[in-house]
């Protein structure tokens, strides 16, 4: 497949952690317009794989080729199982910090708009520590509503702590993103209903 149709090409990946083989011979691609869901039981290595792909650990060996980035910025947006929200920053500061990792600087109006998209209007000045788990998750997810962010999203358990309405809205948002030519690589124990991701099973090493 021509590389410009791919957000990611990963070949012959293998992973050993603490002398345990988690997976091997893993080859897959993520096309633009596609959502891929990494599947496997607890401890199979889903988080390890995602973190390895985005350069947050060195446990994963093999060839990983992301689509070209713009202006040297990261070619992907990563949001982890832990939200990365600081207890000591306000909601607006947290959002500015998270999108800043992708080289994006927000106007006040853009902050308001993104927070409104995730139901956090009026919480701009609240500290991260003053928010519930679901609200903290929503701060991290607000990045997905900001224009100019990378179009390839790597999301580790993005539905965790969200209420029913939040889950449905996020599913719709991810489906919309892919329909508009974005790409999503995620892991989740939640069974999506409005999203039909292509499964990628971590089988474990032979
Ligand atoms: N902090 C850690 N220190 C040492 N080993 C770890 C640590 N976190 C995970 N591991 C090891 O790596 C393996 C893969 O963990 P990982 O978190 O990638 O699994 P997972 O598939 O994402 O699991 P889950 O479905 O429970 O989130 C685990 O089986 C465990 O042995």
Q: What key phrases describe this protein's structure?
A:
206 residues, alpha/beta, Rossmann fold, 2 domains, 5-stranded parallel beta sheet, 3-stranded antiparallel beta sheet, 5 helices, 26% helix, binds adenosine-5'-triphosphate, cytochrome c-type biogenesis, Cytochrome c biogenesis heme-transporting ATPase CcmA, ATP-binding
Tell me the structural class.
alpha/beta
How far apart, in Å, are the first and last alpha carbons?
Answer: 28 Å
Round the mean pLDDT to the nearest integer and report it: 94
Q: State Rg.
A: 17 Å
Overall helicity: 25-40%
* Strand percentage: 25-35%
* Element order: H for helix, E for strand: EEEHEEHHHEHEE
Keywords: ATP-binding, Cytochrome c-type biogenesis, Membrane, Nucleotide-binding, Translocase, Transport
InterPro entries: AAA+_ATPase, ABC_transporter-like_ATP-bd, ABC_transporter-like_CS, ABC_transptr_haem_export_CcmA, P-loop_NTPase
Protein name: Cytochrome c biogenesis heme-transporting ATPase CcmA
